[in-house]
Amino acid sequence: MKAIIFDLDGVICFTDKYHYHAWKQLADKLGIYFDAEINNRLRGVSRMDSLEIILEKSTKQYSQEEKDAFAEEKNEVYKNLLQQMSTADLSDEVRGTLNELRNRGYKLAIGSSSKNTKRILKQIGLDGFFDAISDGTNISKSKPNPEVFLKAAEFVDEDPADCLVVEDAEAGIEAAFRGGFKSAGIGEAHNHPQVTYKLEKFSDLLRVLRN
Ligand code: G6P
Ligand code: MG
Hints:
Strand content: 5-15%
Number of strands: 6
Number of helices: 9
Mean pLDDT: 96
Low-confidence stretches: none
Strand order of the largest sheet: 3-2-1-4-5-6
Radius of gyration: 17 Å
Largest sheet: 6 strands, parallel
Distance between the termini: 10 Å
Order of helices and strands: EHHHHHEHEHEHEEH
Bound molecules: 6-O-phosphono-alpha-D-glucopyranose, magnesium ion
Helix content: 40-55%
Protein backbone atom coordinates (compact mmCIF):
# COMPACT_ATOMS: atom_id res chain seq x y z
CA MET A 1 0.00 0.00 0.00
CA LYS A 2 1.30 3.44 -0.92
CA ALA A 3 -1.67 5.69 -0.25
CA ILE A 4 -4.71 5.72 1.98
CA ILE A 5 -7.93 7.39 0.88
CA PHE A 6 -10.29 8.33 3.68
CA ASP A 7 -13.97 9.00 3.46
CA LEU A 8 -14.71 12.05 5.63
CA ASP A 9 -18.19 11.87 7.17
CA GLY A 10 -18.40 8.88 9.54
CA VAL A 11 -14.68 8.08 9.29
CA ILE A 12 -12.62 11.16 10.16
CA CYS A 13 -15.47 13.00 11.91
CA PHE A 14 -19.20 12.73 12.54
CA THR A 15 -21.57 15.02 10.71
CA ASP A 16 -24.53 12.60 10.60
CA LYS A 17 -26.48 14.49 13.25
CA TYR A 18 -26.12 17.79 11.39
CA HIS A 19 -27.24 16.24 8.10
CA TYR A 20 -30.14 14.69 9.99
CA HIS A 21 -31.27 17.98 11.57
CA ALA A 22 -31.00 19.88 8.30
CA TRP A 23 -32.89 17.29 6.26
CA LYS A 24 -35.47 16.87 9.03
CA GLN A 25 -36.16 20.61 9.01
CA LEU A 26 -36.77 20.52 5.25
CA ALA A 27 -38.85 17.33 5.41
CA ASP A 28 -41.04 18.74 8.20
CA LYS A 29 -41.62 21.91 6.21
CA LEU A 30 -42.70 19.87 3.19
CA GLY A 31 -44.78 17.49 5.34
CA ILE A 32 -42.67 14.47 4.39
CA TYR A 33 -41.96 11.62 6.79
CA PHE A 34 -38.26 11.34 7.66
CA ASP A 35 -36.46 9.36 10.35
CA ALA A 36 -33.01 8.15 11.42
CA GLU A 37 -33.37 5.01 9.35
CA ILE A 38 -33.91 7.01 6.16
CA ASN A 39 -30.98 9.22 7.22
CA ASN A 40 -28.77 6.10 7.33
CA ARG A 41 -29.50 5.53 3.66
CA LEU A 42 -27.99 8.94 2.85
CA ARG A 43 -24.46 7.96 3.92
CA GLY A 44 -22.00 8.55 1.11
CA VAL A 45 -24.82 9.65 -1.19
CA SER A 46 -24.60 13.08 -2.89
CA ARG A 47 -26.83 15.96 -1.84
CA MET A 48 -29.20 15.71 -4.84
CA ASP A 49 -29.40 11.91 -4.64
CA SER A 50 -30.10 12.26 -0.90
CA LEU A 51 -32.96 14.65 -1.69
CA GLU A 52 -34.42 12.11 -4.13
CA ILE A 53 -34.38 9.47 -1.37
CA ILE A 54 -36.22 11.87 0.97
CA LEU A 55 -38.79 12.71 -1.72
CA GLU A 56 -39.64 8.99 -2.12
CA LYS A 57 -42.05 9.55 0.80
CA SER A 58 -43.65 12.59 -0.80
CA THR A 59 -46.99 12.42 -2.57
CA LYS A 60 -46.17 15.53 -4.62
CA GLN A 61 -44.03 15.84 -7.72
CA TYR A 62 -41.50 18.65 -7.74
CA SER A 63 -39.79 20.39 -10.66
CA GLN A 64 -36.00 20.45 -11.01
CA GLU A 65 -35.99 24.12 -9.98
CA GLU A 66 -37.90 23.33 -6.80
CA LYS A 67 -35.55 20.44 -6.02
CA ASP A 68 -32.50 22.65 -6.52
CA ALA A 69 -34.02 25.20 -4.13
CA PHE A 70 -34.73 22.49 -1.50
CA ALA A 71 -31.16 21.19 -1.68
CA GLU A 72 -29.83 24.72 -1.37
CA GLU A 73 -32.09 25.42 1.60
CA LYS A 74 -30.95 22.25 3.36
CA ASN A 75 -27.33 23.12 2.71
CA GLU A 76 -27.71 26.57 4.27
CA VAL A 77 -29.10 25.03 7.47
CA TYR A 78 -26.36 22.37 7.39
CA LYS A 79 -23.57 24.94 6.91
CA ASN A 80 -24.85 26.90 9.89
CA LEU A 81 -24.79 23.75 12.02
CA LEU A 82 -21.23 22.98 10.86
CA GLN A 83 -20.08 26.21 12.48
CA GLN A 84 -20.42 24.41 15.82
CA MET A 85 -17.66 22.00 14.84
CA SER A 86 -14.19 22.53 16.22
CA THR A 87 -10.90 20.74 16.78
CA ALA A 88 -12.72 18.94 19.61
CA ASP A 89 -14.61 17.03 16.88
CA LEU A 90 -11.38 15.37 15.77
CA SER A 91 -10.70 12.56 18.24
CA ASP A 92 -7.27 11.88 19.67
CA GLU A 93 -7.53 8.41 18.18
CA VAL A 94 -8.09 9.69 14.62
CA ARG A 95 -5.49 12.44 14.96
CA GLY A 96 -2.88 10.04 16.41
CA THR A 97 -3.55 7.37 13.78
CA LEU A 98 -3.27 9.87 10.93
CA ASN A 99 0.03 11.15 12.30
CA GLU A 100 1.41 7.63 12.68
CA LEU A 101 0.39 6.74 9.11
CA ARG A 102 2.09 9.87 7.88
CA ASN A 103 5.25 8.88 9.82
CA ARG A 104 5.15 5.50 8.12
CA GLY A 105 5.35 7.28 4.78
CA TYR A 106 1.90 6.74 3.30
CA LYS A 107 0.34 9.38 1.10
CA LEU A 108 -2.94 10.44 2.72
CA ALA A 109 -5.97 11.61 0.76
CA ILE A 110 -9.66 12.35 1.22
CA GLY A 111 -12.36 10.75 -0.96
CA SER A 112 -15.71 12.25 0.05
CA SER A 113 -18.97 12.96 -1.78
CA SER A 114 -19.41 16.14 0.23
CA LYS A 115 -19.12 19.57 -1.34
CA ASN A 116 -18.50 20.86 2.18
CA THR A 117 -15.32 18.79 2.64
CA LYS A 118 -12.89 21.71 2.82
CA ARG A 119 -15.17 23.64 5.16
CA ILE A 120 -15.36 20.64 7.53
CA LEU A 121 -11.60 19.95 7.42
CA LYS A 122 -11.02 23.57 8.34
CA GLN A 123 -13.44 23.40 11.28
CA ILE A 124 -11.72 20.33 12.76
CA GLY A 125 -8.20 21.67 12.23
CA LEU A 126 -7.14 19.46 9.31
CA ASP A 127 -6.88 22.26 6.80
CA GLY A 128 -3.86 21.52 4.59
CA PHE A 129 -3.11 18.17 6.27
CA PHE A 130 -3.94 15.82 3.39
CA ASP A 131 -1.82 15.32 0.28
CA ALA A 132 -4.92 15.45 -1.90
CA ILE A 133 -8.65 16.07 -1.60
CA SER A 134 -11.14 14.50 -3.96
CA ASP A 135 -14.68 15.55 -3.05
CA GLY A 136 -18.14 16.44 -4.27
CA THR A 137 -16.76 19.42 -6.15
CA ASN A 138 -14.70 17.35 -8.59
CA ILE A 139 -17.03 14.47 -9.42
CA SER A 140 -20.20 14.00 -11.43
CA LYS A 141 -21.14 10.51 -10.17
CA SER A 142 -21.70 9.77 -6.52
CA LYS A 143 -20.73 6.56 -4.66
CA PRO A 144 -21.24 3.61 -5.36
CA ASN A 145 -19.62 4.90 -8.57
CA PRO A 146 -15.82 4.80 -7.99
CA GLU A 147 -15.15 8.24 -9.52
CA VAL A 148 -14.33 10.03 -6.25
CA PHE A 149 -11.69 7.43 -5.31
CA LEU A 150 -10.26 7.14 -8.82
CA LYS A 151 -9.74 10.91 -8.79
CA ALA A 152 -8.08 10.72 -5.35
CA ALA A 153 -5.68 8.03 -6.64
CA GLU A 154 -4.95 10.19 -9.67
CA PHE A 155 -4.31 13.24 -7.45
CA VAL A 156 -1.71 11.32 -5.40
CA ASP A 157 -0.35 9.69 -8.54
CA GLU A 158 -0.86 6.06 -7.43
CA ASP A 159 -2.62 3.04 -8.93
CA PRO A 160 -5.89 2.00 -7.25
CA ALA A 161 -4.27 -1.38 -6.46
CA ASP A 162 -1.76 0.49 -4.25
CA CYS A 163 -4.40 2.50 -2.36
CA LEU A 164 -6.55 1.50 0.60
CA VAL A 165 -9.99 3.12 0.91
CA VAL A 166 -11.37 3.65 4.43
CA GLU A 167 -15.17 3.85 4.55
CA ASP A 168 -18.18 3.68 6.86
CA ALA A 169 -20.83 3.32 4.13
CA GLU A 170 -21.75 0.26 2.12
CA ALA A 171 -21.98 2.50 -0.98
CA GLY A 172 -18.35 3.48 -0.35
CA ILE A 173 -17.13 -0.13 -0.09
CA GLU A 174 -18.99 -0.88 -3.31
CA ALA A 175 -17.29 2.11 -4.97
CA ALA A 176 -13.86 1.00 -3.75
CA PHE A 177 -14.42 -2.53 -5.02
CA ARG A 178 -15.62 -1.35 -8.42
CA GLY A 179 -12.58 0.93 -8.73
CA GLY A 180 -10.09 -1.85 -7.98
CA PHE A 181 -9.21 -0.67 -4.45
CA LYS A 182 -8.83 -2.63 -1.25
CA SER A 183 -11.06 -1.34 1.51
CA ALA A 184 -11.22 -1.04 5.27
CA GLY A 185 -14.75 -0.80 6.60
CA ILE A 186 -16.01 0.72 9.83
CA GLY A 187 -19.49 0.07 11.29
CA GLU A 188 -22.24 -0.51 8.72
CA ALA A 189 -19.57 -1.00 6.02
CA HIS A 190 -18.86 -4.44 7.57
CA ASN A 191 -22.07 -5.66 5.94
CA HIS A 192 -20.71 -5.32 2.43
CA PRO A 193 -19.49 -8.68 1.08
CA GLN A 194 -16.53 -7.09 -0.71
CA VAL A 195 -14.99 -5.31 2.29
CA THR A 196 -11.30 -6.32 2.57
CA TYR A 197 -10.66 -5.48 6.25
CA LYS A 198 -13.26 -4.99 8.98
CA LEU A 199 -12.13 -2.38 11.49
CA GLU A 200 -13.60 -2.29 15.00
CA LYS A 201 -12.08 1.14 15.48
CA PHE A 202 -10.15 3.66 13.40
CA SER A 203 -6.79 2.88 15.01
CA ASP A 204 -7.07 -0.77 13.83
CA LEU A 205 -5.69 0.64 10.58
CA LEU A 206 -2.24 0.63 12.16
CA ARG A 207 -2.53 -3.13 12.71
CA VAL A 208 -4.07 -3.91 9.31
CA LEU A 209 -1.36 -1.98 7.47
CA ARG A 210 1.44 -3.84 9.20
CA ASN A 211 0.58 -7.00 7.24
C1 G6P B 1 -21.25 12.62 2.57
C2 G6P B 1 -22.36 12.20 3.52
C3 G6P B 1 -23.70 12.22 2.81
C4 G6P B 1 -23.92 13.57 2.13
C5 G6P B 1 -22.82 13.80 1.11
C6 G6P B 1 -22.97 15.13 0.39
O1 G6P B 1 -20.96 11.57 1.72
O2 G6P B 1 -22.11 10.91 4.04
O3 G6P B 1 -24.70 11.97 3.76
O4 G6P B 1 -25.18 13.60 1.50
O5 G6P B 1 -21.58 13.78 1.79
O6 G6P B 1 -22.72 16.17 1.29
P1 G6P B 1 -22.85 17.72 0.99
O7 G6P B 1 -22.05 18.35 2.10
O8 G6P B 1 -22.22 17.97 -0.36
O9 G6P B 1 -24.27 18.07 1.00
MG1 MG C 1 -19.12 8.23 5.22
